[in-house]
Amino acid sequence: MPLDVSATVVRNLDLGHGNFLMDFEAPEAFAAMQPAQFFMIGVPGAEVLLRRPFSVCGLPGTFEDSAPSTVQILYRVLGKGTSLLAGLRPGATVHVLGPLGRGFGAPRRPEAVPVIVAGGIGSAPFPALIARLRGGFHEPIVLYGARTAGELPLLDWFRANASELWVTTEDGSLGQRGLVTDPLAELLARRAARLHVYACGPTPMLKAVARLAVRHEVPCELSLEAPMACGFGVCLGCVVPTREPGSDRIRYERVCVEGPVMAAERLAW
Amino acid sequence: MPLDVSATVVRNLDLGHGNFLMDFEAPEAFAAMQPAQFFMIGVPGAEVLLRRPFSVCGLPGTFEDSAPSTVQILYRVLGKGTSLLAGLRPGATVHVLGPLGRGFGAPRRPEAVPVIVAGGIGSAPFPALIARLRGGFHEPIVLYGARTAGELPLLDWFRANASELWVTTEDGSLGQRGLVTDPLAELLARRAARLHVYACGPTPMLKAVARLAVRHEVPCELSLEAPMACGFGVCLGCVVPTREPGSDRIRYERVCVEGPVMAAERLAW
Amino acid sequence: MVIPDLTVEVGAVRLKNPILTASGTFGYGLEFLPYYDLGELGGLVTKGLSLRPRLGNPPERICETPAGMLNAIGLQNIGVEAFLTEKLPELRRYDTAIVANVFGETEAEYETLCRRLDGAPGLAAIELNVSCPNTEAGGMYFGNDPAALARVTRACRRATRLPLWVKLSPNAADLVGAARAAEEEGADALTLVNTFVGMAVDVERRRPRLANVTGGLSGPAIRPLAVHMTWQVARAVRIPVVGMGGIMTARDALEFLMVGAVAVQVGTANFVRPRAAVEILRDLEAWLAAHAIGSVREVVGSMESTDEGQP
Amino acid sequence: MVIPDLTVEVGAVRLKNPILTASGTFGYGLEFLPYYDLGELGGLVTKGLSLRPRLGNPPERICETPAGMLNAIGLQNIGVEAFLTEKLPELRRYDTAIVANVFGETEAEYETLCRRLDGAPGLAAIELNVSCPNTEAGGMYFGNDPAALARVTRACRRATRLPLWVKLSPNAADLVGAARAAEEEGADALTLVNTFVGMAVDVERRRPRLANVTGGLSGPAIRPLAVHMTWQVARAVRIPVVGMGGIMTARDALEFLMVGAVAVQVGTANFVRPRAAVEILRDLEAWLAAHAIGSVREVVGSMESTDEGQP
Ligand SMILES: Cc1cc2nc3c(=O)[nH]c(=O)nc-3n(C[C@H](O)[C@H](O)[C@H](O)COP(=O)(O)OP(=O)(O)OC[C@H]3O[C@@H](n4cnc5c(N)ncnc54)[C@H](O)[C@@H]3O)c2cc1C
Ligand SMILES: Cc1cc2nc3c(=O)[nH]c(=O)nc-3n(C[C@H](O)[C@H](O)[C@H](O)COP(=O)(O)OP(=O)(O)OC[C@H]3O[C@@H](n4cnc5c(N)ncnc54)[C@H](O)[C@@H]3O)c2cc1C
Ligand SMILES: Cc1cc2nc3c(=O)[nH]c(=O)nc-3n(C[C@H](O)[C@H](O)[C@H](O)COP(=O)(O)O)c2cc1C
Ligand SMILES: Cc1cc2nc3c(=O)[nH]c(=O)nc-3n(C[C@H](O)[C@H](O)[C@H](O)COP(=O)(O)O)c2cc1C
Ligand code: FES
Ligand code: FES
Q1: In this structure, what are the phi and psi dihedrals at residue C310, rounded to the nearest 5 degrees?
Q2: d(Cα C46, Cα C25) in Å, to the nearest integer?
Q3: Is B255 helix (H, G, I), strand (E, B) or coil?
Q4: Burial class (CB in 10 A: 0-12, 13-18, 19+), C255
Q5: D223-236 vs D175-184: helix axis angle to the nearest 10?
Q6: Closest Cβ opposite residue D76 in set B4, B50, B236
Q7: Which of B192, D179, D219, D275 is deepest in the core (most CB within 10 A)?
Q8: Which ligand is nearest the CA of A124, by number?
Q9: Residue from the list B47, B227, B230 with its beta carbon closest to the beta carbon of D60
C-alpha cells in the first residue's frame, strides 16, 4: 500500500559529476520495500508539475553512514526535476509517494549466482538488492559500466560490498574498455547454468542484456525506465510493449505497475 | 541605469506575523538609490513566472546590524512569490533588477517637517527615507497604522529612529484605536503650513491621505502599488489614471516608471 | 460555524458534492482505493470506453510542459464489456456517482455503446467524449462539427435513458455552436474542457517528443483558457455545465463554479497528488465555512461582471 | 569550432539572426537601451500602433497565471504620428530590422496606417495585428474570418511596398484557412501566435481579475499550443513563417525553428529578464556551434516526422 508523505531531507551528498545521494526520513513501511521499487518525488513550490520517479537505492542498513530512520535515492542531474532535487539542503521537504511498482525477485534456486548488470546511474537500485541477496547468502557478481569513469557513482560502494566486480568504460578511462555487456557475454558463455541476471541502465543496454540472457536461457530481470506522470497506474503514460509467453500478440503494459522490473522474455521491443 | 544581478541572500529574518526582512549582497550602485525606488525580484527555478516588486527598505547604514555591502527589503507573505522568498536561506540566490522607478524627493523647503504615513507593510520604504531625511537635518514625524499590532513590523525601528511616532490600530491592540489618517487629519488641522507628507500603504489609505493633503494644500508624495509584469515600462500593465495639473483629461501612467512615487494631486482615482 | 451544504444537481443527477474526477486521469477508479474511499467523491468518470478493447498508441505517450503535460495515450482501454463485468460491480459498492466516458469511431458505435450501458446497474450517467484530440476515432471530427455533434447526440439520446453528458472539445471551431447543438439534441449536461492539441519537440533528436507527434495539453497551464470557455458556454445554454481544466486547488475549483459550472472535474492533479480530489473537496468545504456560505450552490455563477469588456 | 551563420531571410527581409522581439512586450524598443545594444537583435517589433493615440483599458490590466500571464492592455499606444516623429528616428540608429505592428478598427484604418508608414525611412516591414483578443478594434473580427482577413490584407498590400507580415490569431476558428487567405492576398510572411483568450477569477472578491474580464494568455504555458500551430501553418503555406509563444530559452526557440519557422519572436520573456532576447541569441549560437551546425537555416523545418499520427 503506497504512502504519500512529506519527508525531510537529512543529507544530499554531492558525489561529483552530477550524481547525488539523498537521505530522507522515511516512514517505517518503506523499510520493507523490494529493491527496484520506486518513489514518485516532488519538490513543493517548484516549477515542475509532475513528480519524478526514483528507485530506492538504500534501505536501513544498506549504507553504513546513513541514519537507520532514512532511506536513500541515488540520482543524476539531467533536467529541471533533478536540478531542483540537487539544490535542496538538509531540512528541506520533499513529497514522496511509495513504494511503487514491482521490484526484483529472489533467485529461484538456492544455488543461483546473481549477476548484476549496472549501467551508470542505473546502478541506483543495486545497493538495496545486494544487501538483500547477501542476507539470503547469495554473493552477487557485479558488472558495472558507463561511458566514462565519472559516471560510476557507486564504484566505491560496490568495491566494498561486491565479492566480484567487473568495471567497463566506453572510453577506457577505468576498468576494461568497452560495454558492460562484454563481460556479461563472457560470463554467460562460461557458466550460464546457474546465473540469474538483474539489470538496470539505459534502454539500449537493457535490450542488449535481454538478448544475451534470452539466447542463453538465463533468468533475467530488467528494471525499466519510462516517462511517468502518475507512477501508480492511472495515466497509462509509461507503457512498454510486451508479449504473453508463447503468443505473438503485443499489448502495452505499465512500467509503473506491471514493472519497473520485467522479465526479459516478456518484452516486445 | 538599472542593473540585473544575481544576488546572494545574506539574511532572511522572520519578524513574525508573516513579515520578513531580507538582506542581500548588493552592487555598489544600489547604495545610491532613492527611497521608494524598487527592485523586481525573482527566485530561480520557482513556479512563479514573473518577478515581484519590492521597495528598497534599507541602504548601507540604515540598519545597524546589516552588513554595509547589503541592502534590505521588508516583505509580507501574501501569495506564492512572497512565500518562495520566505523559504530562502542565507546563501540562496535571487535575481534582482533595480533600481527602478522614481523615489521620494527631498522636501522642497529647508524648514519643512516631513510627515511619514505608513500603513502596515507599506512602512517598507521609510527606513531608507528617514535615514536620508536625517542626513539632510529633517526630523520626520511618523504615523504608523495597521489593522492590528502584529502588522507593524517596523515598530521597534521607528521607536528608535523617529523623533515623533504615532501608532494606530483598527482593533486598538496597540496605540490609538482608529485609522492612521486620524492623527494625520489632526496634524494637518493644527500646522499644515510646513508639512510635507510621504505616504505608502494600502490603496484606500493612500486615497484618504491624498484627499486630506490636497484639501490642506500640503505637498504629498504617495508610493503606489500595482500589479507589475516587467517593472521597467514596457508591458503597460501597471498603469494608474492621472490628470495633468489644471486639465480634466485622464491618461494612464506607469507606476513602474512615472511612479511608484506620484504627487497626490496628479492622481485621478 | 455553518456546515455548508455541498450537494449539487447536474440535471437529474444529484451529487453529494461538486467534485468529480476526470476521464483518463482516474483509471477505472479502483486504482485509487489505497488513497481514499471513493464514496467521498461527488462522482467519478471512467477512462474512455470503446466497444472493443484498444491497444492505444506506442510510447512515448506523455511529456511534461510548463505547468502542464501533453498526452497521446490513444484511448487505450479494456472495452465496455470488461468494464461492465470486471469494474462496475466493484465500483458500485461505493456511494458515488459513476459516469461512463465513451467514444466511438462512428455514430453507430456511439449509439451501440450507449445502448449497451443503458441498463447497467449503478451507472449515474454517460459522458460522450466527442473531443479527444489524439485520434480521429476519439471524436475530433464529431466535436469539431456542430452538425455531426448534433447527429451523434441525437443517436445517443435515443439509445439510453441514462443522463447524457456531452464533453466539449476546446479545439472546436465554434465552441458555443457545439454547445448549443448538443443542448438542442437533448444532452442533459455539458462537460468541458477536454485537452488542447499541442506538441513539443525533442531538439536534440530533432523529432517530436510524442510518438504520435501531437498530444493533448492538460494541467494548470490551460486553466485560464478553460475558465473562459466554461464562462462562455454557461452563459449560452440552459442545461448544467461541469467545468474542468487545470484544477489543482479549491480556489481553482471556485473559479469554475463562480463562472457558472455546477460541478467540476479534477484531472491531471490526480497524477501529482493521488489524494488531490478529496483534498480539494476538504478545502472547498473549509472555504465555504470560513465565508459563512450555507450552500455551494450559492457560489455557482456568482461572479460579478458586466458583459465582456471590449474597450 | 565553427562560427555558425545566423542570418535568415523572412521573404525579402534579411535578418542578421532569427531572434526578434514581439509586439507589446518591447515597448518602442528604446526602453531596452539600458540592457543591450538593439543592434544585437535580428529585429524588433513595436507596440501595436493605431492612427490616433489610444488610452487603453483601465486597470487591473494584467495577472499572473500558471507559467503564463493574462493581459488586457487595450492597445494603449502613442499613435503612428508620434511613433514616426519621436521614436523611429532614434530607433533607426540601431542596426536591426524595425517592424511596425499596426491595427485598425476598420479596413480603411489599416490601409491608411500602411500608406502612412510606406515611405518611412528605416522601417523593414509592417506587421498587421489582426488577432488581438482584447478589443474588437484589435482585430478579433478580422483575424477570425478568412474573408475579412483577405480583404484587409489586400487593402494593405495595395497601400505599401514594405514587406507585409500578417500576425495570426490562435483564436481563429480556422487557422490554416486564415493563413492561406493571407498568403493568397500577398502577405510576405505570417507571424504567429498572438495571445489566447482567457480569464481568471478573484475568488475572494468574486469578480474577474482583469477589469476587461477577459485577457490574452501568453508565456510558457501556451508554448505547446503555439509550436503545434506554427507547425500546421508552416506546412500549409509557401511564404515564411515567424513563430512565437512562450519562448524563454534557446531550446524553446529551436522547437519553433525545427517545426518550420524561419525566425522567432520573444515576448513575455522580455518582462522576466530584460536581456532575455540576447541571452537566447547567445545560447542559440552556442548550441549550433556545439552541434557543428554551419547555419541556423539548416535547423529550420528539420524535425523528422511522418504526417500527424492518428492511431
Ligand atoms: C522506475 C524508475 C526509476 C528511476 N530511478 C532513478 C534513479 O534511481 N536515479 C536516477 O537518477 N534516475 C532514475 N530514473 C530516471 C529519472 O526519473 C529521470 O532521470 C528524471 O525523471 C529526469 O527528470 P528531470 O526533470 O531532471 O529531467 P527532464 O526535464 O524530465 O528531462 C531533461 C532532459 O533529460 C532527458 N532525459 C530525461 N530522462 C532521461 C533519461 N532517463 N535518459 C536520458 N535522458 C533523459 C530529457 O529528454 C530532457 O532532454 C528512474 C526512472 C524510472 C521510470
Ligand atoms: C513598487 C512596489 C513596491 C512594493 N514594495 C513592497 C515591499 O517593500 N514589501 C512588500 O511586502 N510588498 C511590496 N509590494 C507588494 C508586493 O509586490 C506584493 O505583495 C507581491 O507581489 C505579492 O506577490 P505574491 O506572489 O506573494 O502574491 P500573489 O500570488 O501575486 O497574490 C496572492 C494573493 O494576494 C493578493 N494580493 C497580491 N498583492 C496584494 C496586495 N498588494 N494587497 C493585498 N492583496 C494582494 C492577490 O490578490 C492574491 O490573492 C510592492 C509593490 C509595488 C508595486
Ligand atoms: C493522460 C490523460 C488521459 C485522458 N484520457 C481521456 C479520455 O479517455 N476521455 C476523455 O474524455 N478525456 C480524457 N482526458 C481529458 C481529461 O478528462 C480532462 O478533460 C483534461 O485533462 C483537462 O483537465 P485537467 O487539466 O484537470 O487534466 C485525458 C487527460 C489526460 C491527461
Ligand atoms: C502585455 C502584452 C502586450 C501585447 N501587445 C501586443 C500588441 O500590441 N500587438 C500584437 O500584435 N501583439 C501583442 N502581444 C502579443 C505578443 O506579441 C505575442 O504574440 C504573445 O505574447 C505570445 O508570445 P509570448 O508568449 O512569448 O509572450 C502582447 C503581449 C503581451 C504579453
Ligand atoms: S506512470 Fe501513470 S500509468 Fe504508469
Ligand atoms: S510593470 Fe510593466 S510597464 Fe510597469
Answers
A1: -140, 45
A2: 8
A3: coil
A4: buried
A5: 40
A6: B236
A7: D219
A8: 1
A9: B227
Q: Is D114 a catalytic residue?
A: no
**Could you tell me the distance, in angstroms and rounded to a whole number, from the CA of residue C200 to the centre of ligand 4?**
21
Q: What number of residues does chain C have?
A: 311
- Residues in contact with D144: Cβ distance below 8 Å, sequence separation at least 6, in sequence order: D169, D171, D172, D173, D178
The reply to whether residue D303 touches residue C208, judged by beta carbons under 8 angstroms, is yes
B-chain residues near A84 (CB < 8 A): 45
pLDDT one digit per residue (tens) for chain D, 311 residues = 679 999 999 999 999 999 999 999 999 999 999 999 999 999 999 999 999 999 999 999 999 999 999 999 999 999 999 999 999 999 999 999 999 999 998 889 999 999 999 989 999 999 999 975 434 444 456 888 888 899 999 999 999 999 999 999 999 889 999 999 999 999 999 999 999 999 999 999 999 999 999 999 999 999 999 999 999 999 999 999 999 999 999 999 999 999 999 999 999 999 999 999 999 999 999 999 999 999 999 999 999 875 554 43
- Map A113-172 to HEC letters: EEEEEEEHHHHCCHHHHHHHHHHCCCCCEEEEEECCHHHCCCHHHHHHHCCEEEEEECCC
For ligand 3, the distance from its centroid to the CA atom of residue C66, given in whole angstroms, is 17
ipTM score here?
0.96
DSSP D267: -
Cβ-Cβ contacts under 8 Å for B256 (sequence gap 6 or more): B53, B100, B101, B226, B228, B230, B231, B232, B233, B238
Residue D90 to residue D121: CA distance in whole angstroms: 11
CA A31 – CA A58 distance, rounded (Å): 9
Ligand number, closest to the Cα atom of C192: 3
Over the stretch B49-101, which tens digit does the pLDDT of each residue have? 999 999 999 999 999 999 999 999 999 999 999 999 999 999 999 999 999 99
C302–D206: do the CB atoms touch at under 8 Å? yes
Picking from A39, A47, A234, A243 by the largest number of C CB atoms within 10 A of its own CB, the best residue to mutate is A234
Pairwise CA distance, residues A249 & D42, whole Å? 54
The pairing of strands A38-42 and A52-55 is antiparallel
User: Which residues 60-99 of D are in CB contact (within 8 Å) with C?
Assistant: 65-68, 70, 72, 74
Beta bridge partners of D201: D208
Q: Which of B150, B18, B153, B154 is nearest to B87 (CA)?
A: B18
All three cell numbers of A241, joined, read 510493449
Residue with cell string 502495452: A252
**CA A120 to chain centroid:** 10
Residue owning grid cell 532511506: A71
Q: Minimal Cα distance from C222: which residue of D?
A: D221
- Tell which C residues from 41 to 60 touch D, by Cβ distance under 8 Å: 56-58
